[in-house]
Design brief:
- By secondary structure, the chain is mostly helical.
- The chain is built from two helices and no strands.
- The N and C termini lie far apart (47 Å).
Length: 49
């Protein structure tokens, strides 16, 4: 059984770096991760939205 890296799986399923699909994925993933980090900070400081 062959093991694949995360990068290899992204390349196979979404596309290589430089493709439109991969760029869209990267933008959405960055936005999601930023949102999760903001949420954690707000929760730790008990800040309401």
């Amino acid at each position: 059984m062959k093991l694949y890296t995360h990068e290899e799986m992204l390349n196979k399923t979404i596309g290589e770096h430089g493709t439109t699909e991969r760029a869209n994925y990267d933008v959405h993933m960055d936005a999601f991760l930023m949102n999760e980090n903001i949420k954690k900070v707000r929760e730790s400081k008990k800040i309401q939205r």
